[in-house]
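Anyone up for a design puzzle?
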């Protein structure tokens, strides 16, 4: 579970490169009994419940203040907009502050 949290904190793009480079390379002394990459992938589903419990315990109390990210998400090019079906019933076309 610690390895999965560390992967997200270090912002690697691919888990495989993180595991081989960072864990089996740089962190071998701290984690001497690491399984192979393929065995670790097989073990990940077992960590879902403990990971959820950890994340739940780290959540703070709601203060009533929320932060909203206003970054626009480009779904597809305008030429293909009518072929796009993801969130078809919920999504809408709009303009952000940048146009």
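Challenge accepted. My sequence:
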């Amino acid at each position: 579970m610690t390895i999965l949290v560390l992967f997200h904190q270090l912002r690697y793009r691919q888990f495989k490169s993180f595991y081989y480079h960072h864990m089996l390379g740089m962190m071998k002394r701290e984690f001497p009994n690491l399984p192979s990459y393929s065995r670790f992938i097989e073990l990940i589903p077992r960590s879902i419940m403990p990971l959820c419990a950890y994340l739940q315990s780290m959540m703070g109390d709601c203060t009533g203040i929320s932060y909203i990210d206003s970054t626009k998400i480009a779904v597809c090019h305008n030429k293909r907009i009518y072929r796009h079906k993801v969130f078809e019933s919920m999504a809408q076309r709009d303009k952000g502050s940048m146009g």
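A detail worth pointing out: The longest helix spans residues 15-26.
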